[in-house]
Structure formats: C-alpha cells, structure tokens
Amino acid sequence: MGNRSVYLDHAATTAVKPEVLEEMIPYFTEKYGNPSSIYSIGRESKKAIDEARDKVAAALGAKPQEIFFTGSGTEADNWAIKGIAYTNRHKGNHIITTAIEHHAVLHTCQYLESDGFEVTYLPVDKDGLVTPEQVRDAIKPNTILITIMFANNEIGTIQPIAEIGKIAREKGIYFHTDAVQAVGNIPINVEELNVDLLSLSAHKFYGPKGVGALYIRKGTKINSFIHGGAQERGRRASTESVANIVGMGKAIELATANLEEYNKKLIALRDRTIDEVMKKIPFVKLNGHREKRLPGNVNFSFEFIEGESLLLMLDMKGIAASSGSACTSGSLDPSHVLLAIGLPHEIAHGSLRITFGEENTDEDIDYLMEVLPDIVNRLREMSPLYEKAVKGE
User: What GO biological process terms are annotated to this protein in UniProt (predicted)?
Assistant: First the structure.
C-alpha cells in the first residue's frame, strides 16, 4: 500500500466545505458593499450578516441580538475576559479559571494579573476534569468572573459546564466558557448551560478562518473591546468581514443539521482507535477522560519517544496529526495540559493528538494502525530506557 494522505488534525483546523465557499464567493465579488452604507449593495451585505447572526443564534439556543461577530475565537476570549474584568472592576478583581485553558484564556488572565487582577488557576484531576465543588470553594467576595473551557483542545475532556454555570448564577458571578472546540462537535444550548458568555470559531466546523463570535447574554455588563465605528450594535468596531461571516453562518447551519449522526460516526472512529492502539502498542497512556470527551478526540502519550519525531515520521507516511495544540507546536516545552494532569516531563513529551472529522473513514484507521506501531517501535529502539523497560529492569 503506497502512501496515502490522511488528515487527522481537525482540532487544529478544518477545510472550508464547498457549499460554504459557494455562499461566500458573491460577497467577495459582486456583493461587495459595505454593510454600513445605505444604498442597496450595502443593504444586501447587512442583510447577509443578519441572516448569518440568526443561524449562529439558532445553533446555540440564543437570541440573534446576543451574538457578536469577532475576528477569531481568540479575540472572543480576550473580549469576554478583559471586557468583564474592566467593566466590573468596581465590584471586585478576582477571576477563576483552570490550569488547562487554551492560551487565549491563560495569557489573557496572566495579562490581567499584571494589571492588578487576582486569578485562581484551578488544578484538574488525572482526566483533566475540574469539579463544581472546586469552583464553589474558590469563590470569594471579590470574584467577578469564572472562565472555564467547555472541552479541552488537547485531551478532549468535557467539563461540567451546566453545573458550574448554576453555581455562578446562584452567586451572581459572570460565567464565560471557551467553546471553540465544542461548537459544531457537540450540542450546545446557552440556556441549559447557564453561561453568560461563550466563544466560538468558524474554522473548527468547516467554516473560514478569521471569523469567530462571542455570545453575550442580554443584560451582561461588558465594555467594547475594539473602539471605532458603530458596527455590531456599537460593541465591536471595524468593517465586518461579510464573506467570512456568511461562511460562518452556513457552516454552523450545516454542522448542527446532522450533529447526532456526525457525533456517532466520530465516536465510533475515536473508540476504535483507542482500543486498537492500547491493544497493539505497549507503554502507552490515553490522556483525557475515557467517556466525557469530544467525539473526535484521541490523545496518547507513548513512553520513551519524542512527540516531534513521531509527527515527522507520520508526516512522511502522509498522516497529519499533532502533539499538542496547534498554537504551541513551535515551542519545545511539554504541553501545560499534560503536565497539569500529572504526566512527568519525559512522558508529556511523547504525546500524539489525533482528531477526526467528516471525511475520515475506517480505512484511515487501518492505515494509521499499519504505520503507527512500526514508527513507535523504531523510535523506541533508539532509547536506552526502553531497552531496560522491556527487560523489566
């Protein structure tokens, strides 16, 4: 069997679906009007944005006027956290988050610490979970915001968001969730989840890059993040990226239309991969919760090997995967998520993240299982520690 091309990194990004692209194209060419203009070509753009907003709202169980388009999921996280922090500073300066958030949240919280805010980073258990009790215990009289990710981008663990949201609501504290990995992969309803703010990003569900959204519950006190014109009802200045917004609307509509079926398919691929790898390769650990995890996420640590070499060798066989999050692949430090779930440095270094998507099939897993055990073996043969472990020393 010759080299195939198998893409197993859907948590990093997805391709734009043909039907999404098709809806976007007119807004680059003949329908190029500025949505803020009152003539017809501008009004057409405005109408297209409104329709996309309706679609995003419908997918989340929100009202259209609670959806604000942003340039990315990262911007949505920044706006939610800094916006709430600065607008509500008169009430307090304490923020609660977890040790395994995406850097868009962690670095934003660290920035706020340098400006006099106090942040509690909750530890997680070996599966990457935080408990509602931990959150309750961390609340102080000056707590103004709780920000906890919906599902982890590296290990796929899904947090008890609705329960945490209930506690936040009882205490009158704003609750934000970074749902960038979850939207389009699992059903989400902002009412049932008790969240005040939720971030999402189009390129994680077959939409374009460069567009995201922030759900802001009506009545939430939050300042604008980007100042300028009156776009997004005066909350987020800058000329809207109409084509991208249209693409996001179409992509989320398609993603939610067949979510249940898509879920089933991904769970089957995920579980088969976990079972086969655990069975065929020794000295391997599954990272993240076995059941409470994203449908398409698999994350392993292989002892006695370096994740980087593993990725390069998989790439030579035409398989695209990752070792942590796409945003840190340039860094040589082991993943903060894997260290937070208690893995020692040397094991955290040997991690492999496989994330499935729509075009993946059982044949892709057949091919992965044909090449992965061999690659792991070859890399381990270079490790003196592996030799000792095999001999049981």
Answer: [2Fe-2S] cluster assembly; amino acid metabolic process
- Cβ neighbours for 121, distance < 8 A, ≥ 6 positions apart: 97, 98, 99, 106, 109
Tokens 């897993």 belong to residue: 365
Residues annotated in a binding site for [2Fe-2S] cluster:
327
In this predicted model, what pLDDT tens digit does every residue of 154-179 receive, in sequence order?
Answer: 999 999 999 999 999 999 999 999 99
Tokens 């040589």, residue located: 332
**What's the predicted TM-score (pTM) here?**
0.96
**Which residues are annotated binding-site positions for pyridoxal 5'-phosphate?**
73-74, 153, 181, 201-203, 239
Joined together, the tokens standing for residue 205 give 């569900």
Q: Which residues are catalytic?
A: 327
Measure the CA–CA gap between 89 and 255, rounded to whole angstroms: 38
Within 10 angstroms of residue 270's Cβ, the number of other Cβ atoms is 21
Domains present along the chain, CATH in parentheses: 6-14+259-391 (3.90.1150.10), 18-255 (3.40.640.10)
